[in-house]
Each structure stands twice: as structure tokens, then as C-alpha cells.
Amino acid sequence: xxxxxxxxxxxxxxxxxxxxxxxxxxxxxxxxxxxxxxxxxxxxxxxxxxxxxxxxxxxxxxxxxxxxxxxxxxxxxxxxxxxxxxxxxxxxxxxxxxxxxxxxxxxxxxxxxxxxxxxxxxxxxxxxxxxxxxxxxxxxxxxxxxxxxxxxxxxxxxxxxxxxxxxxxxxxxxxxxxxxxxxxxxxxxxxxxxxxxxxxxxxxxxxxxxx
Length: 211
Hints:
Blueprint: H1 3-10, E1 16-22, E2 25-29, H2 30-39, E3 46-49, E4 57-64, H3 68-71, E5 77-81, E6 84-88, H4 95-103, H5 113-119, H6 136-143, H7 163-166, H8 174-186, H9 194-209
Antiparallel strand pairs: 1-2, 1-6, 2-4, 3-4, 5-6
């Protein structure tokens, strides 16, 4: 869904909280966000001005999906889908109260273009530097790990990696590593509060411990 879709779905909402699954979080927008903050918990909302809304603003809140049952305890679930959850509010959502609440929230400032460029690993007029990795000898010297395997005659792409990695002694399989990478990629850092980021790191640590 797009920001316009969220705005449309919330325009006439008076009695429900609509949550959308985004990565490891449930997020609510507009009136649903207001209902969460006033009827469940006072999460810190985020308000942004977007070009796709012709300069209009949208407000949202989020909380870790792992805390879903604790946060929504006692609320009637009307719809349950993998990426969408709808619960009934305890009392009707007052449109005027919502508008007053939204107006009281400071609009988040967009990042300067230079900051965005540096965050992506590049500067104006320059391409991103190619990352370099330590050689097997440096890994052995610095980390006291197993020595690197001998290079093969046919140009094995794993040449130069520590023996523990080459022979399957690493902590993760490729599938598990890709799964974790997908979770990190799916996390919306720009729209998340510091507390949401902390919860996200906590969830990743739990996943790592369970491997």
C-alpha cells in the first residue's frame, strides 16, 4: 500500500485500529495511530510531509510484532492476516480530537541531500568505493582463527577464506544468512523511532541466539 492508500482507508475510520506488518513491526497510520496512542499505549508518533501527498502530512506509530499479544491484550480482533491486523477500538474515534492530536505533533525534517549521499556510501560526483576485505593471513593473525585453505588450481571462488568457512564450520548456512539479511533490508529505518530501532536489534539478537 502507498501513503495515499493509508490516507484513504483512514479517512472515515471511526471504530477500528488497522495495523500493517512492516518487517518486524506492526505500524498504524492516521486515525488508527491516534487510537493506539490514546486507547492502548502512548507510543511516540512520527509525522512526515510527503511529496506524493502534494505536501500533505501523514502520521504513524509502530511497535515490535513480537510484543503484539502484550500490546493488544483485551482488544477484539476483527481481521487477522499475515500482513494486516484489525482490532476494535474501545470507544469511537473522534475526528476533531484526531486532527488536534495530529496538529500537535512536530513534523520530522527530511535529511539533507548530502547526508543521504554519505549514508549510501557516496558523495556528489563520486561512485561508492569498492569494499575491501581482510586476507586469510590477516584473519589468522588478528583473530587467531584456523589458517586459510590452499588455493585450488581451478580458481575456486572460496579461495582466500578461512578453512572454517570453506568446510562448513561457520555459524550460519547461506539460507539463514539470507533470511537475516532480508529482515534487515525490510526494516524501514527512516520511518522508525530510536526505540523501534532498539526493539529491532533486540529481535535480531533473539534470532541469532536461536540459530
